[in-house]
Amino acid sequence: MDLAVHFRTAVALAGRFPALSGVDLDVAAGEVLAVLGPNGAGKTSLLRACAGLVPVTSGEAVVLGCDLRKDRTLVRRRVGLLGHAPSLYDELTALENVRFAVRATGAGTDRVGPALDRLGLAGRLRRTPAARMSAGQRRRTALAVLVARGPELWLLDEPHAGLDADARAIVGSLVEEAASSGAAVVLTSHEPDLAVPLADRVAVMSGGRVAEERAGGRGAAATERVLVALSQDDVDVA
Predict the structure, then answer these.
(1) Which of 12, 53, 131, 238 could form a disulfide with 48 if both were Cys (CB 3.0 to 4.6 A apart)?
(2) pTM beyond 0.90
(3) Distance of alpha carbon 63 from alpha carbon 80, whole angstroms
(4) Burial (CB count within 10 angstroms: exposed 0-12, middle 13-18, buried 19+), residue 215
């Protein structure tokens, strides 16, 4: 099994605070992992560590074969991170933002147009500066960056936030397609009813660690079983 993510007792500091306090986690290529947990559990810090944006100070942390303890910059062009706040330039249009982000990672621009179309950013929306976009349109533009880049590891922080029902359905399709292509997907959510159906596995974080793992919920019946089990175990997932 090819591992996209391999963490063992990984510790990451935010200043002097341990944002991750001994994470053990494996994510295989082609796998979708949903990470649940309350605010402050370490979900966002986990994604940022995987993206090489937060230094791992002890333990093992290997992403796409890159040892983050030795050089965390090597992995950055191979992963795609969708953060809470889309990283867009306000003065650039949707088209310009996606094209700029793709070029910055050294990828070709041939998928920029189709990516924008896929996210419903056609016509005048392509020419709209980010400063004049709604929150949902900005989120769609950030997702279009990932589609156009095609990273080997998708890191999605609350990907359904700020999106309407149609865009949420697109997110589900994009996650499935990315995994089918061999990419690994790690997504966090405060909405387990949206995240669990997409996941092969579910990890629950607490106090900067993975406190529990269980099978995901592909299909309505499986999703219901996972949600009921989490509820019965009194697991704090939101």
Answers:
(1) 53
(2) yes
(3) 12
(4) middle
CA nearest 198: which of 151, 156, 228, 162?
A: 156
Tokens of 212: 């529990």
- Residues 36-49: tens digit of each pLDDT: 999 999 999 999 99
CA terminus-to-terminus distance, the chain: 31
User: Six-digit token pair at 234?
Assistant: 């009194």
Q: How many Cα atoms sit within 13 Å of 16 on the Cβ side?
A: 0
In which region does residue 208 sit, left (phi positive, over 0), alpha (psi from -120 to 50) or beta (all else)?
left
User: What type of residue sits at position 224?
Assistant: E
Interval 219-238: pLDDT, tens: 666 777 777 776 766 566 66
Sign of CA dihedral 177, 136, 34, 77: positive
